[in-house]
Amino acid sequence: MDPKIALMERAKEMEVEFIHLQFTDILGVMKNVAITIEQLEKALNNEIMFDGSSIDGFVRIEESDMYLRPDLSTFVVLPWTNYPREARLICDIYKADETPFEGCPRNTLKKVLKEAADMGYIMNVGPECEFFLFHTDEKGQPSLETHDNAGYFDLAPIDLGGNARKDMTMTLKEMGFEIEASHHEVAPGQHEIDFKYADALTTADNIMTFKMVVRLIAQRHGLHATFMPKPKFGVSGSGMHINMSLETLDGKNAFYDEGDEMKLSQVAYHFLGGVMEHAKGFTAITNPTVNSYKRLVPGYEAPILIAWSASNRSPLIRIPAKKENSTRIELRSPDPSANPYLALAAILKAGLDGIKNKIDPPTPVTSNVYHMEEQEMKEKGIEYLPGNIYEAVQFLSQDEVIKEALGEHTYEKFVDAVLYEWTEYSRYVSQWELDRYLRKF
After folding, report:
1. In this predicted structure, what is the pLDDT of residue 187?
2. Is 241 helix (H, G, I), strand (E, B) or coil?
3. Rounded Cα distance, 128 and 240, in Å
4. Among 53, 175, 227, 297, which is 20 to 30 Å from 82 by CA?
5. pLDDT tens-digit readout, 319-354
């Protein structure tokens, strides 16, 4: 049976009345156009149009006609809807001339994935996405009051967010996620739900869906879920560690080598070398907000130095102990404010550059990099990640490999948005400044 006909029949059997055609803008914000079931055939024939000039970072008013092309594999009924039932389809953005829109983040990732496939590789990714749950006030606005005082791996009754997290997990399972773990994180009110790895495109789709579900279920519990990297001073921020590996087209883990001391293949070492070589260049993409850099500071487990290790969690990259099919590298700097499509595209492009140019990684570190003296760091060639988003954008502007991954349109629109935010932030007089200077001078 034709896949489109099969999908339409399935939607009718499940009594779906509304379908959300979802897509993501350059800043990583989910958007959607809702249609009725009567319009589904039109949508599946790629005939649904929207005004691209209304979306941040898309196009000018004279180029506004954009078309949504649904990915049929992403159809899922939203479990929290009864009657009328609602479903969603994730879409790619195409221009009126039927060519992929270069400002669509999903198209950006697909382009780099094709480059990997042409080299004989499929990228697999398992994310670890952290978030905070806060109480809301009498008007329903989020506060900074956490719903618990629990810590790492604590459980009820100390972890009062357990019920919300359980509902999030069950909802995600109903939507096809395979949940591997869920637990309380280090800071009060902080949580993590880990889902099984998948190919990079599916994982990026899943991250966007995950964030939508977490926020919606939190709201139903009278809580506000935020993926802001550092919502509170003095506690750990939220990261989105990226566990990744390359798979050959015949299904073997390209990162595993039984004969190597660390069980890593030459492909893995070169991929690692490329990621480290371009770490400064892609940090603006993996950590895209002013607030991201309040997390990347000493003392809270987030990495600040470009180093790697198989034995400790302080450097930028860790090699988890599992081997053979589970052999992977874990990049610890990204945070959940990142657009997952652009972040994975940039990271993959960096790794592929390492493979192409046989970039060897530096010597791994075995000691805690937080306790290293400046002289030792200098001797080992260990450098810092960018200290703020402005600095990160400067490194991005000098990295032709990462710019190529993004494409000219996305690069320019992304930088424009980030620098606008930086200018606004730089002009803002904060409470910290008032507390420090108002009486002093």
Report:
1. 78
2. strand
3. 5
4. 227
5. 987 777 788 999 999 999 999 999 999 999 999 999
Q: What letter would DSSP give residue 96? A: T
Measured on CA atoms in the order 46, 49, 55, 60, is the torsion positive or negative? positive
- The label of the residue with tokens 């994730």 reads 90
CB 172 within 8 A of CB 195: yes
If we measure between CA atoms, which residue out of 360, 200, 196, 208 comes closest to residue 271? Answer: 360
Which tokens in the block code for residue 260? 């190597």
Token pair of 421 as six digits: 């935010």
How far apart, in Å, do the first and last CA atoms of the chain sit?
77
DSSP-assigned states of every residue in 375-416: HHHHHHT-EEPPSSHHHHHHHHHH-HHHHHHH-HHHHHHHHH
In the three-class reduction of DSSP (H, G, I as helix; E, B as strand; rest coil), residue 64 is classed as: coil
What are the DSSP calls for 111-139, one per residue? HHHHHHHHTTEEEEEEEEEEEEEEEE-TT
The first and second tokens of residue 80, run together, are: 């929290």
Exposure pattern of 283-301 as b/e (b: 16+ CB <10 Å)?
bbbbbbbbbbbbbbeeebe
187 and 96 Cβ atoms separated by less than 8 Å:
no
Helix (H, G, I), strand (E, B) or coil at 333: coil
**Residue 122: which of 130, 111, 131, 114 has the closest Cα?**
114
Residue 151 confidence class, pLDDT cut points 50, 70, 90: very low
How far, in Å, CA of 193 to CA of 199, rounded?
A: 18
Contact 267, 353 (CB under 8 A): no
Q: How far is Cα 290 from Cα 284, in angstroms, rounded to an integer?
A: 10
pLDDT at 65: 77
Q: Which residue has the tokens 């493979």?
A: 355
Angle among Cα 177, 182, 183 to the nearest 5 degrees reads 165
DSSP state of 74: G
Element (H, E) at 41: helix 40-44
Rounded to whole angstroms, how far apart are CA atoms 209 and 90?
10
- Structural tokens at position 240: 């989105």
| Residues recognised as catalytic | 51, 128, 130, 185, 192, 241, 313, 330, 332
Phi and psi dihedrals of 4, rounded to 5? -65, -45
